[in-house]
Amino acid sequence: MEKSRKTSLIVYTGFIGNGGGVVTHAKHLSNMLAEIGIENKIFSMECIPGPLKYIFPLIERLLNRIFPPIGFEVRMRLTKLYFDVFMRDNYDYYFFEDIYTVPSKFLNKSLIFMHSLKRDNLQNFRKISKIALNRLYELDINMIKRQKDRIYVVSDEYKEKVEKYYNISNLKVFNNFISYDYDNCIDWRNKDNDILFVGNLENRKNPIFLIDVMEELKKMDINFKLYIIGREKEITKKMLNKIIYQKHLEENVEVLGKLDNKDVLNMMRKSKVFVLPSLWESFGFVFLEAKLNGCIVISNKNLDVPKDLVDYEIELDEKKWSRTLYQILSASNDIIKKSNLDKYKRDYAINFLVTQLKKLS
Are β-strands 7-11 and 93-96 bridged in parallel, bridged antiparallel, or unpaired? Predict the structure, then answer.
């Protein structure tokens, strides 16, 4: 009699339809599990019945407006309570895309991915009390210590940052991965002078800074076009277009809004440079996708992003960014550094995953 296939559940506590790096990770993980013969399902907020799926994030937003950032903790506790009560132990393995909502009953058969911590997402709060920050610190450190043996950080750089901040050691790393033909990256020299930004339109991603950079670049008398791709959040297309109009950059900057992943990758294949001046990143699938599609990658300095995925790290200075872009767009020699992308390959990730799952069996 044929042995039944192993089953697994990937748990993401956001809305899959909103996209983002963690969603990308969940989808690639799902494909990889299927490839090694493990049936799997993705559980996201869309799977919670009725209006309850919207109540948790609504409570988070309301409380964060009044007592930031307590909304993060309340939503986490409500979501975890829902999982404790309603999530049945019907799977051989569980994969959690955050460290905050793992029911204790599933811990011994779970892998937990640390993409970020709540302290990394405080840019939108103008004022936070020391008491609230200390409470958040205690929440993070307790979650990490309780689940340390099951947690995998998504990059070496972010691991080092977390260990230093929380004074802990020996966290494990499972690098983000992607299925792609790594041996056929597109040559940037055959592309037009297109510049591409991909990310949510929010303060953390810092798209307004890029418009200021383009204003400086325009003074240098070179042809270029910046395309801004992303889902509206606290920054809207209307807000960006108003700034573009005020700076007379209508011919040089276009806000495309949200596109599906296929269209984003097509834009990367046509673009010479990928830019992301984020205030914070822990890995960023978009860096890897840009690199694999032949873009020269520029980022803010001191992000927790693998160094292999960034060609230029520059502090947030409009003139420095514009000068670097001018040098890239006007150059004809090979200025892309050689990167070791092996550890982000699907085959590497599969071998690593199989090894970790054997420890849970």
Answer: parallel
